Amino acid sequence: MKRRMSRAQMVKAVLPVALVLTLIAACDRPVASNPPSAAEQTTKREEIDPWDRSRQCADLADRLATRLRRDYPQQSSDVPHVEDWNSHYNRKEARCFVEVAFAYSLAAMRENRGLIPSGYSELWDAVETLQIAEYTSVPPKDGARLYCRVPDPGGDRSMDLVDCAAAMKFIRERMTN
Predict the structure, then answer these.
(1) Which of 33, 36, 60 is nearest to 47 (CA)?
(2) What is the spatial distance between Cα 14 and Cα 94, in angstroms, rounded to a whole number?
(3) If you average pLDDT over residues 103-113, what whole number do you get?
(4) Distance CA 175, CA 153 (A)
(5) Which sequence spans correspond to the domains of the chain?
(6) Tell me: the pLDDT tens digits for 111-150?
(7) Helix (H) or strand (E) holding 133
(8) How far apart are CA 167 and CA 75, in angstroms?
(9) Which among 114, 120, 161, 107 is positioned nearest to 141, based on CA atoms?
(10) Residue 146, Cβ density class (10 Å: 0-12 exposed, 13-18 middle, ≥19 buried)
(11) pLDDT tens digits for 51-82?
């Protein structure tokens, strides 16, 4: 004579077996690994095709230059306008740099009697949209303000006034490595 099990008896019989099977399955799963180290992340970053990085950098440079052109319109005589820009993905620093050339209008130069330069360049980090350095390629008359600054070695985001040749060297190094 067959005896039927009640639902409660069936749950009591199956539950321990299901629990044991679940624990066995959990033990067979691979253990989650630690997050990758900074060196591993750098290696993965370098695995991306350098041409892709350069293209992404050029796109970021175009966006930055477009924004700067909007902020410094050519019609205004008292502010400089964007003349040109150049982008470069620096593999050594793994950063996208943009060199932006600005020019003042002839009217602005006449108004200031030559005390402002005809043009100057700025170095930007395109990802952070942060100005890093600036220099005057054609110096104004004696006694005028020179636009030659590089990052403060102290590490904050301020810039120190330097010799224009030093600023140009700083920018060239970032635009060629």
Answers:
(1) 36
(2) 59
(3) 71
(4) 19
(5) 40-176
(6) 766 666 777 889 999 999 888 998 886 655 555 556 688 8
(7) strand 130-135
(8) 29
(9) 114
(10) middle
(11) 888 999 999 999 999 998 888 766 556 677 78
> What count of Cα atoms within 13 Å lies in the side-chain half-sphere of residue 37?
2
Which of 8-22, 33-47, 57-71 reaches the highest mean pLDDT? 57-71
Q: What are the residues facing 121 on neighbouring strands?
A: 101, 135
Identify the residue whose tokens are 């067959």: 2
Q: Tell me how crowded residue 150 is: count the other CB atoms within 10 A of its CB.
A: 21
Give the model's confidence band at 109: pLDDT under 50 very low, under 70 low, under 90 confident, else very high: low
Q: Are 129 and 147 in contact (CB under 8 A)?
A: no
Pairing assessment for the beta strands 119-125 and 159-161 based on DSSP bridges: unpaired
Which two tokens mark 71? 């902020």
CA distance 36 to 44: 10
Letter for the amino acid at 166? Answer: A
